[in-house]
Structure formats: structure tokens, C-alpha cells
Amino acid sequence: MNKVNLCIICAAYVGSLTIEACRQQTVDLTPVGETLSGPIALDEAPAAVVRTLQGTDIDERYEVILSDSRNDVVVWSLMYCSDEVSSEGYGIVINKGSEKTTIANLRHGRQPAAHYDAATGNLWIIGADMEGTGTLVERAYLLRFDEESKAHIVCSIEPFAMQRKLAERLAYTVDGNLVTLYADGERADTATNTIDDMGAIDDEAVWIGEQIGYHFVGNSLYVDVTPGLKYVNGPALAYDDLPTLTARVTTTDDCGFTTEELKRYVADPFAGKYVSGYDSSQLEIMPREDGNYDIVVDLFRLTLLDDGIGTLADDGIHFRATDAGGQPIEGTITMIGDAARLVFTNSTWDLLNVGDSFDFEKTR
Asked: Distance between alpha carbon 97 and the CA centroid of its chain, in Å?
């Protein structure tokens, strides 16, 4: 058990003077528990996935998870092999230019993501090793292209290794219904337990490992971890009250990795991928490290805007891009629940008029 010293500030007012004193109080910290007992082995894809990927056509069985037209990189995930045969979450196709790479044994899961950084040549694909009720354990794959534009897996961030790295930094205290999380000995967040039908909080209260995911901000990869609470009478960990913590991930030359400051994750309400239920048009909103957004709009049979830059305003995101004729085009994106509405506010493109609007539903 670790100990930290807290400085309790006491203040007294005498006339116009304020006298402050610092009283040291030692707090016992309990390390978080770890649910993953060891490294997760990578299984081989079903034979049906291998046969399907040997085909030449990209059709309705595939879903685009990255379309980077500026760098001519497209990544698809295989959703199913046939009407009767599931892909079981396996199968990736990558195109750089006209060169195609198929990777059968990469398990992308139900909510894959990908990002390409042209400056470093890094292609990240986020797959899933475990999925289920209350469980999402993702794995980050790092790929690079060779001189012939074939993609190769360089390494992956194995979930057990990430769990170990995060557990070394996380601890907690429990005071009644108050659970306080500490990162590197510093208070990160305090949450109030609201569950009263599973008995008291267990002596070994806080665990990590069942919910480890990733997201991108600009070209940077971030890991997200949500601790679970264990109860005396609870059949499983509960994730209702504890916050998600996030840290930037940096890889090393030998495929090791480090994590930077752990802090509470505040989800950007705009960030994500969106699709139209009408014609499968797509909208992607990606936070940049400078606080702005990269915007990609792919309107079915109309246009592709892949260089949009958005800025946050009181009424949503204002973005500016270049249309197919090389002219500037502008619009506003607003949120309605988990849906996004795009309205064009400036356009000289024949197929898009000022006031034209498009609605999208969030997929990730």
C-alpha cells in the first residue's frame, strides 16, 4: 500500500489579514486490481475470411474505416463473408495507391478505427481482442508501408502490457461512498458510488483491464481506461460511476511504449464518424491538437471534401474546405443528440447550394 501526503489548507481571518497554515495528512493508497491475468494470444482468422480476402472485389461485405484521399490510403474491414458466414471480426484490406494489402489475422472487432500520419509513415489500426457486455479490450496495431506500398504490421500494443503499465500508476482510496482515483500519487478524480443493490464496496474495490480503448487527437494516439468497482454481492464489475482516464501514448524504436499524464477523459461531443441512413454518405470529424478539427465530407454521387478545417463556434463547428472545382466551400455542423447536421453556408459548386443540409448518425 502506498502513502501520499496531502496538504490541508486552514485559513483564519484577522481583521484584513488572512493567515494560512498547511496541515499534512497521510493517506493510504490502494493499488488498483488487474483483471487480465496474462497476455492475450492472437488467434488465426477463420478459413472463410482468408478465402474471402483472396477475392478481388470490395463490395457491400466491407466497411470503410479510413479514407485518406490526400495520401491515397484506404482501409476496409470485412464485416461478413457471406449471408450465412460471419467474419467473426477478422479481416482487413489496405490500399495505398493501386497496391492492395490483405491481413486476415487482424481482428478489427465491431468498432474499428484507423489513422495515417504521412509525416512519420505510421498507420494505426485499432482492433478488439475482447468484446462483450461490460467488456471492450482494444489492441492498437502499428503498420508501415514498404517501398512497393505494401502494408506490414510492425508491432501491436498488447492489452495486458498496457494494463500493467497503467496499473503501476493508478491507486485509490474509499471513504464511504466516495472513491478517489490517484495517478502517479496525485489526485485525478473523485466519484460517488450510486449503486445500492449489490452490497457494500468490496475491500479490493477498483480494478482495470476490462475496458481499455483508444482514440486519436490529430496524429497522436491516446489510451482510454475505465476502472470498474467491485461489490461484495456483485456478480461483475460495475462501470456506472467511475470516470474514464486517458493518456497520450508514445511508441519507441524497439516497439515499446510510454504513457504520458493520466487525466480524466472528456469526450469531444463532435468527434467521430457519421453515416447517412439515406444514402450512406459519410462525415468524419477529427480533433486536432491545436483545438480545431479536420473535417472529411463524402457525399454520395455529389462530392468528396477531404481537406476541411473546422473551428468551434457558439452554434457548432464552422468549416472551410476546397470543392471539386478548386474553390472554397463552407458549412456549419451542429449536433442533435448523437446526430450531426451539416448545412452549407457558402458554395459555388453546381451540385451544392447555400442552405443544402445533410443529416448523419454517429457510428463511432
From this structure: 27
The string of DSSP codes covering 134-174 is TEEEEEEEEEEE-TTS-EEEEEEE-HHHHHHHHHTTEEEEE
- CATH number for the domain formed by residue range(s) 272-362: 2.40.128
Name the CA radius of gyration of the chain, rounded: 24
Cα-based distances in Å from 213 to 131, 136, 141, 168, 364: 11, 7, 12, 18, 12
Task: At 268, give phi and psi (nearest 5°).
Answer: -75, 120
Domain boundaries, the chain: 47-156, 162-264, 272-362
202: enclosing H helix or E strand: strand 201-208
Non-local CB neighbours of 98 within 8 Å, separated by 6+ positions: none
CA nearest to 134, candidates 266, 267, 237:
237
Cell of 179: 472513491
Phi, psi of 139 (to 5 degrees): -125, 135
| DSSP β-ladder status, 211-217 and 135-145 | parallel
Helix locations, the chain, DSSP H: 47-53, 159-167
What is d(CA 191, CA 89) in angstroms, rounded to the nearest whole number?
35
- Do strands 33-34 and 201-208 pair parallel, antiparallel, or not at all (unpaired)? parallel
For the chain, give percent helix, strand, coil, nearest 5: 5, 60, 40
Could you give the CA distance from residue 339 to residue 331 in angstroms, rounded to a whole number? Answer: 16
Question: 48 — phi, psi (to 5°)?
Answer: -65, -35
Phi, psi of 175 (to 5 degrees): -135, 95
pTM for this prediction: 0.82
Contact call for residues 189 and 243 (beta carbons, < 8 A)? yes
Across the chain, which has 364 residues, the per-10-residue mean pLDDT values are: 54 51 70 96 93 88 87 94 91 95 92 92 95 91 96 95 96 93 92 86 93 92 95 87 93 88 88 87 89 91 90 94 92 93 94 94 83
